[in-house]
């Protein structure tokens, strides 16, 4: 099988979560049936929030490019990155290597129906950097954002510190209700910190976790 290289550490728990989701999408009878991964768990990747929102931190691009090169040299046949916001730096990653990046943003937007109104439950950095703009324009769908993006940023920081707490669940439920009132046909769980709570989230419209989409793409690449 063809190993996939994981650009990890953004954050560490999200990287571990991706591994759990990969276990769930493989029909395995023994250890050898599971998927081979090469994981660069690097929590020292410069903060995407500091670079994109606060404008105080260094550009993560060089570090991510170096990680991609290490993974390719180690034998990875494709790359994956379980951080939606870090896909702002996808061009720097793909320029640094000769193997494909399984782009979770593009893949997730591709799951929406044409002309759909897609709610994006993620970091304000996604909106500021326009991470979803081009994929949604290509797919002919419209993005809808929660009204209180600052509350979501505070929730991301709280989850990084304290994990998936009841307060975090309440904040995400409020955002889902808001997106539903705005007319969302589909809501993307587009922050891997939020993905930690996905099993406990519900709404009147379909919720699609981008980490789940990425896990399926990794499985399909390795099994192809």
Structure description:
- The protein has 224 residues and is α/β, with parallel strands linked by helices.
- The protein folds into 2 domains: 4-104 and 212-223, 3-Layer(aba) Sandwich (Rossmann fold), CATH 3.40.50; 105-209, Rossmann fold (3-Layer(aba) Sandwich).
- The chain has 11 helices and 7 strands.
- The chain has helices spanning 12-24, 48-54, 61-73, 90-96, 104-109, 124-129, 133-139, 149-162, 166-181, 192-195, 210-223, and strands at residues 4-8, 37-41, 78-80, 117-121, 142-144, 186-189, 206-209.
- It has a 4-stranded parallel β-sheet, with helices on both faces. The chain has a 3-stranded parallel β-sheet with strand order 2-1-3, sandwiched between helices.
- Strand 6 (186-189), helix 10 (192-195) and strand 7 form a beta-alpha-beta unit.
Instruction: Supply the CATH architecture of the largest domain.
Output: 3-Layer(aba) Sandwich
Number of helices: 11
Helix coverage percent: 40-55%
Round the Cα radius of gyration to an integer and report it. Answer: 17 Å
CATH topology of the largest domain: Rossmann fold
Question: What characteristics describe this protein?
Answer:
single chain, 224 residues, alpha/beta, Rossmann fold, 2 domains, four-stranded parallel sheet, three-stranded parallel sheet, 11 helices, 7 strands, 13% strand, globular
């Amino acid at each position: 099988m063809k190993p996939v290289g994981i650009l990890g550490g953004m954050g560490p728990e999200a990287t571990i979560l991706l591994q759990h989701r990969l276990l769930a999408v493989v029909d395995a009878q023994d250890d050898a049936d599971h998927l081979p991964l090469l994981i660069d768990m690097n929590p020292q990747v410069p903060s995407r929030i500091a670079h994109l929102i606060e404008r105080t931190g260094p550009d993560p691009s060089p570090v991510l490019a170096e990680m991609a090169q290490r993974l390719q040299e180690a034998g990875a046949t494709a790359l994956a990155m379980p951080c939606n916001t870090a896909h702002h730096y996808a061009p720097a990653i793909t320029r640094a290597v000769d193997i494909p990046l399984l782009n979770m943003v593009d893949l997730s937007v591709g799951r929406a129906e044409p002309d759909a109104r897609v709610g994006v439950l993620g970091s304000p950095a996604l909106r500021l950097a326009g991470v979803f703009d081009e994929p949604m324009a290509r797919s002919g769908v419209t993005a809808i954002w929660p009204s209180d993006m600052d509350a979501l940023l505070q929730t991301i920081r709280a989850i990084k510190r304290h994990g998936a707490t009841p307060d975090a669940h309440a904040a995400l439920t409020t955002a889902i209700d808001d997106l539903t009132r705005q007319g969302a046909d589909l809501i993307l769980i587009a922050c891997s910190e939020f993905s930690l709570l996905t099993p406990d989230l519900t709404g009147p419209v379909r919720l699609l976790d981008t980490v789940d989409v990425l896990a399926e793409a990794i499985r399909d690449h390795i099994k192809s």
